């Protein structure tokens, strides 16, 4: 149903046999451990915005996919308020290859779409945690691939584009 | 003393939007303006107060509220309740797009003279004090059928209010009740709209389509897509055309937790636009007012128009 293309970082490195063409970029997202009494895995969305304008493109969104009933997991997607405004509010979810379940603290690598026109982009990652905080991290990058890295302070760790 | 204050406030509740000088502000405060999915409710507070958004003065009656769904159909006010200081109600936001929730009001008010005495037209009638003297022939408050009044002999217009503070308050409810012998008729038409906007999923503009009548909000930046670090552009129209010189006041809520009100006073340019920079994220009260000499009733000389809203501005 929501067969996401998200792979843990380690196996991807192991699969380094494939010659990486210039466009096959990926983004690695770190969800930090937060030591609080009541912890819930954050909702996290990643999208890219062309610097010169144009519509945003959602690359992944992790939320409580399975929760249905009177208060479905989709109810809190609007808490990812920047992503919601930049495209989340027009998406049909679940979306194949884009939506997935929430992730435990750790690092996750997600491929960036290979068919991006050459140019300058900003990759944005937003995390919102129930009874917790919300954070937005922006990483500028360009196609053909020139990576970058930025770190969040509370809800997100290092975001790296390779 | 206290009683009088409340009376004035009640009048303010109905006509505050027509009289910008009046300090009391009418407001609706939605629990949110942005919802994911169409199985949610928004719950709304409704009140009149000086400080935003503290219901500490007069409740607004949810009975005056209408709901416009994104597809143009009428929505429903559910669980209405009017408390001491605050009205509340819920609206099921069960269709995708932007909903409008609010009040529209138009009235003609003013004064005239009859046999040397000053009379008021329109506004809310104060409650009749027990045993208060009425001019002979006057009907009990609220009972005068509009339209029947002009036929009545001068000196006995539709109705009269009670005595307050020893001063006679003479009043007719509407223009139709002004007797034929009235002189110095000074009337102003007041049009006021107060609306909030709530979006389920992507915002839409259907409920923001101008009707071409009176002062209207024609935002370039959608009211449900306001961000504190992005300038918002709002256009105002009068009778469908961009209106210059409209005074727009924006006040952030939560004054209790800061030193100043931080109100912004802006004026629309020739293109009818104001460009708004937000000092902080939060809920803002907005009131736009303008005046012209194009009332719908020939006997009125001026038209006052107000549009108000509560806007949610999110942090980036």
TrEMBL record, chain A:
The entry's keywords: Signal
Pfam families in the cross-refs: DUF2271
Signal peptide stretch: 1-24
Superkingdom classification of source: Bacteria
Protein name, entry field: DUF2271 domain-containing protein
Automatic annotation (TrEMBL), chain B:
Keyword Glycosyltransferase annotated: no
Signal peptide positions on this chain: 1-23
Key words, A-Z: Signal
Superkingdom of this protein's organism: Bacteria
Classification via InterPro entries: DUF4198
Region (Disordered): 123-167
Biased composition regions of type Low complexity, renumbered to the chain: 124-157
Name by which UniProt lists this protein: DUF4198 domain-containing protein
Gene source species: Novosphingobium silvae
């Amino acid at each position: 149903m929501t067969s996401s293309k998200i792979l843990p970082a380690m196996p991807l490195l192991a699969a380094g046999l494939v010659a990486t063409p210039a466009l096959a970029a990926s983004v690695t997202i770190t969800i930090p451990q937060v030591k609080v009494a009541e912890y819930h895995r954050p909702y996290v969305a990643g999208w890219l915005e062309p610097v010169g304008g144009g519509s945003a493109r959602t690359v992944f969104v992790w939320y409580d996919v399975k929760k249905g009933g009177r208060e479905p997991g989709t109810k809190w997607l609007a808490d990812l308020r920047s992503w919601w405004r930049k495209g989340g509010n027009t998406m049909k979810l679940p979306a194949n290859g884009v939506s997935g379940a929430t992730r435990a603290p750790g690092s996750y690598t997600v491929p960036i779409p290979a068919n991006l026109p050459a140019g300058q982009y900003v990759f944005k990652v937003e995390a919102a945690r129930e009874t917790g905080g919300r954070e937005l991290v922006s990483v500028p990058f360009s196609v053909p691939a020139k990576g970058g890295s930025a770190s969040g302070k509370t809800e997100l760790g290092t975001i790296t584009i390779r | 003393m206290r009683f009088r204050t409340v009376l004035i406030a009640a009048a303010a509740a109905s006509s505050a939007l027509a009289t910008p000088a009046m300090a009391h502000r009418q407001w609706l405060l939605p629990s949110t303006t942005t919802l994911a999915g169409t199985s949610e409710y928004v719950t709304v507070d409704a009140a009149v107060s000086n400080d935003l958004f503290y219901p500490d003065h007069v409740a607004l009656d949810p009975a005056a509220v209408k709901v416009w769904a994104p597809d143009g159909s009428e929505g429903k006010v559910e669980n209405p309740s009017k408390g001491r200081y605050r009205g509340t109600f819920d609206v099921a936001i069960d269709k995708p797009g932007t909903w409008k929730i609010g009040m529209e009001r138009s009235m003609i008010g003013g004064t005239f003279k009859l046999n040397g005495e000053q009379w008021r037209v329109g506004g809310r009638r104060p409650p009749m004090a027990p045993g208060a003297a009425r001019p002979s022939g006057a009907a009990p408050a609220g009972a005068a059928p509009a339209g029947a009044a002009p036929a009545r002999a001068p000196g006995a217009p539709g109705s009269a209010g009670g005595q307050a503070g020893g001063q006679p308050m003479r009043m007719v409810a509407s223009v139709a009740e002004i007797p034929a012998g009235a002189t110095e008729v000074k009337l102003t038409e007041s049009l006021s709209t107060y609306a909030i906007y709530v979006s389920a999923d992507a915002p839409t503009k259907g409920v923001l389509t101008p009707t071409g009548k009176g002062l209207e909000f024609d935002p370039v930046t959608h009211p449900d897509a306001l961000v504190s670090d992005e300038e918002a552009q709002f256009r105002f129209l009068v009778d469908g055309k961009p209106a210059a010189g409209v005074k727009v006041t924006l006040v952030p809520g939560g004054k209790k937790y800061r030193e100043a009100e931080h109100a912004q006073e802006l004026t629309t340019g020739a293109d009818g636009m104001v460009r708004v920079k937000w000092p902080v994220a939060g809920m803002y009260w907005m009131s736009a007012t303008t005046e012209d000499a194009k009332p719908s009733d020939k006997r009125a000389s001026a038209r006052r128009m107000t549009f108000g809203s509560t806007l949610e501005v999110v942090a980036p």
